[in-house]
From TrEMBL:
Gene name of the encoded protein: 107363991
Family: Belongs to the class VI-like SAM-binding methyltransferase superfamily. Isoprenylcysteine carboxyl methyltransferase family.
Job of this protein: Catalyzes the post-translational methylation of isoprenylated C-terminal cysteine residues.
One MF term in the entry's GO annotations: protein C-terminal S-isoprenylcysteine carboxyl O-methyltransferase activity
Taxon lineage: Eukaryota, Metazoa, Ecdysozoa, Arthropoda, Chelicerata
Protein name as catalogued: Protein-S-isoprenylcysteine O-methyltransferase
Gene3D superfamilies reported for this sequence: 1.20.120.1630
Organism per entry: Tetranychus urticae
EC category: transferase
Length: 295
């Protein structure tokens, strides 16, 4: 009842995205049925990764020929179906493949879920502001470089040793970090609602209020805390020792600078109200105190 009401109240872009993501999961039963073939056909065992890519391509081709005439809707549809098919197929393949491949496909699961849910929560909380960029797929060159580096390290290390990628304990810890971090970030966005934005606002809007309740009573920047641990968790999940260190350093530096700049503006927006909030609530990011005014 509640879920149907939420869907009914969702903006058109949100409904389109949710439907596209859900419908793309139709590829999962296909992959599951092929597991029976894999047990008797050695050729399939050699081609399963190509089949994975082929199923995703088929979904994308269908979307293109069916919806490309409706440009705005198509931009939402192809991204949502891509994320949905990657999420669903990757999750399915985790039950069909050798253990040393599971971290890679779980990585695709958490990345697909992160980007789709990012768009969906913005559609729920700020329907008038939701846009293609809300998927955060084109976040930055640095973000894409980081993803490529993570996948690159995984395959290089996998080439030399399967054992390093086969620890179920490491996989479990990384997966928990990713899911918990993503949940915290989405909870922060849902709590802040229209007061949340993907970019730092240099001017205070009329309806902008200081959110201090819910998860914001525990952390001044819970969405950043969630993203920080999600990012590091992806590398723990992949068992990438080099990228764990690099991601930690780069993410810490990024959020240290971003929080400093953002809080400087927030002090300007809210004055003593924000300074008092600073005194009461920490950032919850390690060794990051934020803008020093009022600390």
């Amino acid at each position: 009842m509640i879920s149907s009401q939420l869907f009914h109240n969702l903006c058109p872009e949100g409904k389109l995205s949710l439907n596209s993501f859900t419908y793309s999961l139709v590829t999962c039963p296909i992959a599951f049925s092929l597991c029976f073939i894999s047990s008797t056909n050695s050729l399939f065992n050699q081609l399963w990764f190509l089949l994975y890519l082929a199923l995703i391509l088929i979904v994308q081709l269908f979307c293109y020929f069916r919806y490309h005439h409706y440009n705005h809707d198509y931009q939402i549809i192809w991204r949502s179906t891509l994320l949905g098919s990657v999420f669903g197929l990757s999750l399915t393949y985790c039950f069909l493949i050798p253990i040393h491949w599971i971290p890679f496909f779980l990585f695709l699961v958490v990345v697909g879920l992160f980007h789709f849910s990012e768009y969906l929560v913005i559609a729920i909380t700020k329907p008038k502001s939701v846009k293609i960029g809300s998927f955060m797929l084109n976040h930055s060159v640095a973000y894409h470089t980081a993803l490529i580096a993570a996948v690159g390290e995984y395959f290089i290390e996998l080439h030399f040793s399967h054992q390093i990628k086969s620890s179920t304990f490491v996989m479990f810890v990384g997966l928990i970090m990713c899911l918990a971090g993503d949940f915290l970030r989405k909870l922060a966005i849902l709590t802040a609602r229209s007061n949340f934005d993907h970019t730092i606002q240099t001017k205070k809007s009329r309806d902008h209020i200081l959110v201090t309740h819910g998860v914001y009573s525990w952390s001044r920047h819970p969405s950043y805390v969630g993203w920080f641990w999600w990012a590091i968790g992806t590398q723990v999940l992949l068992a990438n020792p080099v990228c764990v260190i690099v991601y930690t350093v780069v993410c810490w530096k990024f959020f240290h600078e971003r929080i400093y700049d953002e809080e400087m503006l927030l002090v300007n927006f809210f004055g003593l109200e924000y300074i008092e909030y600073q005194r009461k609530v920490r950032t919850r990011l390690p060794f990051i105190t934020g803008y020093p005014f009022g600390e």
